[in-house]
Specification:
Elements (H helix, E strand, L loop, with lengths): L2 E7 L3 H12 L6 E6 L5 E6 L2 H7 L7 E7 L14 E2 L5 E6 L5 H9 L12 H9 L5 H11 L5 E6 L5 E5 L5 E4 L3 E5 L11 E4 L4 E5 L4 E5 L2 E3 L4 E2 L11 H7 L1 H15 L2 H9 L2 E6 L1 H18 L3 E5 L13 E7 L5 H12 L3 E6 L5 H5 L2 E4 L12 H17 L6 H14 L13 E6 L2 H17 L3 E5 L15 E7 L5 H12 L4 E6 L8 E4 L9 H19 L18
Helix pairs in contact: 7-12, 7-13, 9-12, 9-14, 12-16, 13-16, 14-16
Bound molecules: fructose -6-phosphate.
The site of fructose -6-phosphate has 15 residues, from helix 9 and helix 14.
């Protein structure tokens, strides 16, 4: 979602801000902008790529600046709606990540004072409100503005003739980087990786003032002590296609996840899960599909009932209480719907565990316990290796609950098989024009759901996941020569039923491709999975050919799979 970067120090801010924005590009955006401070505030912004924006920025010796990549919510992705936004008096520039829910009321109040809005955004409100505040106490001014805003509102502001950055965090993440040559702030630690390894993670409702040589953090007007923590992370390597690279990294990610689980899992966490009457798993998108897998393995191995909720639906979840143990899965650890679910669970007394790929992300600070995937940074918008790692983490957790220690050799073999599998392609050119169906039964149905999601995300084509046995109750009406059906079969007990479904589909002249661990199920083309020690591990492998076929289809259609339209890597608005 929107990316934010700010710098004040002794270096030229322009280069640092542009570099930070380029790192944030992977999150998905449609426009970008930069404000450089000093005697005047110079704003350059436009729709399109950061590299194009960089060409438009005049030479600047400013040593303070803020930048933003925008993913449109209020108002189209145009130059006027791109951030930074300036106050009516031109003294203040702001960048914002979030959605102001009482936007219409605040806009009315501001326009009634004769102030004319220059953009269609909700964010511009912040610049005007700040300018209307008494500027002699900026902590008070920032807090007053933050208190007027309902919804999520993490923002940075700079003023004319002032070398400080004023920051407020509400929901969307903000991390301060403490450098030798100045101080930095960003919505994503990756953007700070080149400059510093020490930082402060802001919590909700905190205000920070960054000067060249100092950082102060306040809550409710009072300065507070914050821990300086290690925020080091490897800057992502430059790569022609991140999604391809990340699929190639699955074997290593699996081994890292294995190590991470056994070095981090706490006995108290396992005891708390065992004690709970109910387990709730909450996640969005791909992570939700991992949650469905979590239900299967925990119910099968640990014999505990599990409910799985989509993050945005969790506000309706019933029976959440201090007898519930809630598990949250989020690659980024910043997904607003999932964070809201953590807060709701905590307020209802539930104990919480987060499973995330980003240590020091918001979710890790909110949860009682956390497990870090250690899959390495995931830059491509469509999640791949983090999904395989999430499945493994849940498998290990379910085994731990059942009192089993999973042998390292089992995961080494899995990792080896993942490597071999990533060289096998089931892509056919007809996939780029056909309607696609992904079918399976039981645990394979959730893999089918993830296969279909991946395909939609990076090919922009319709794809549907279906329980194989349910097709004949209606959806089979769609089957014809223009359909390709990917059939998954990893469980011996379902082989017969899958074979029947495939023959029903073939009788309607659709093309069929099998991904099978149980031998022949009658498809036109089949990819046979290697033998694994435990059939519950198959979803970790069976998704790989589907990730790859989506990637190949995307290439075939001339789409950049790393930056699919309309999508953001981390969805920080509800
Ligand atoms: C799919 C995808 C999204 C995310 C979802 C949750 O490829 O990337 O569906 O899985 O937005 O994101 P996280 O896991 O960061 O909470």
């Amino acid at each position: 979602m929107c990316g934010i970067i700010g710098y004040t120090g002794t270096q030229y801010a322009k280069d640092i801000i542009i570099d930070g924005l380029s790192t944030l590009e992977y999150r998905g955006y449609d426009s970008a902008g930069i404000a450089l401070g000093g005697d005047d505030i110079a704003i350059t912004k436009q729709s399109g790529r950061v590299s194009e924006l960089a060409k438009l920025i005049p030479t600047s010796f400013a040593t303070i600046g803020i930048g933003h990549t925008r993913w449109a919510t209020h108002g189209a992705p145009t130059s006027k709606n791109a951030h930074p936004h300036q106050s009516f008096d031109g003294n203040i520039a702001i960048v914002h990540n979030g959605i102001i829910e009482n936007c219409e009321i605040l806009k009315k109040e501001i326009t009634s004072r004769g102030i004319v809005f220059k953009s269609d955004t909700d964010s511009e409100i912040i610049a005007h409100l700040l300018a209307l505040e008494d500027q002699s106490d900026m902590v008070q001014a920032v807090e007053n503005v933050a208190n007027k805003i309902e919804g999520s509102s993490s923002f940075l502001a700079i003023r004319k003739n002032d070398d400080k950055i004023y920051c407020h965090k509400k929901n969307a993440a903000l991390t301060i980087g403490i450098g030798f040559d100045g101080n930095y702030i960003a919505s994503d630690m990756l953007a700070l990786a080149k400059y510093t390894s020490k930082g402060i993670v802001l919590s909700d409702d905190e205000t920070a003032i960054l000067a060249k040589n100092s950082v102060k953090v306040y809550k409710n007007g009072v300065e507070i002590e914050k821990d300086l923590i290690d925020i080091s992370c490897k800057p992502p390597k430059i790569c022609p296609c991140y999604m391809q690279a990340e699929i190639d990294e699955i074997p290593t990610a699996l081994l890292n996840t294995y190590e991470s689980f056994y070095s981090t899992i706490k006995k108290e966490c396992i005891d708390d899960i065992k004690k709970a009457e109910r387990i709730a798993i909450v996640a969005c998108g791909t992570a939700y599909h991992a949650g469905l897998y979590g239900k299967e393995v925990i119910e099968i191995l640990a014999n505990k009932p599990v409910e799985v909720y989509i993050g945005s639906e969790y506000d309706r979840a019933r029976f959440i209480s201090n007898k519930t143990f809630a598990i949250f899965i989020s690659q980024s650890g910043e997904t607003a719907d999932t964070l809201a679910a953590v807060n709701r669970s905590k307020s209802l007394g539930a104990k919480t565990l987060s499973i995330t790929n980003v240590a020091n992300s918001s979710i890790t600070f909110l949860s009682d316990y956390s497990l870090i995937l250690e899959a390495g940074p995931e830059i491509a918008v469509a999640a791949t290796k983090s999904y395989n790692s999430q499945l493994l983490m849940l498998y290990l957790l379910a085994n731990e609950l059942a009192g089993n220690k999973v042998k390292r050799e089992t995961i080494e073999k899995l990792s080896q098989e993942a490597k071999t599998l990533s060289t096998h392609s089931i892509f056919t050119e007809s996939m780029a024009k056909d309607n696609l169906f992904f079918i399976g039964k039981g645990i394979d149905e959730l893999s089918a759901m993830e296969g279909a999601l991946k395909f939609k995300e990076i090919t922009y084509k319709m794809a549907e996941a279906y329980p194989s046995g349910e097709l004949k109750h209606g959806t089979i009406a769609l089957m014809d020569t223009n359909c390709t059906v990917i059939a998954l079969a990893t469980n011996e007990q379902d082989k017969q039923k899958l074979t029947v479904s495939v023959s029903e589909i073939k009788a309607r002249h659709a093309k069929t491709i099998g991904i099978s661990a149980v031998g022949e199920i009658g498809c036109d083309i089949s990819l046979f999975l290697p033998k694994l020690e435990d059939k519950l591990l198959y979803p970790i492998l069976s998704i790989i050919p589907m990730q790859l076929l989506s990637l190949s289809t995307s290439f075939h259609l001339g789409i950049n799979p790393d930056k699919p339209r309309n999508l953001a890597k981390s969805v920080t608005v509800v």
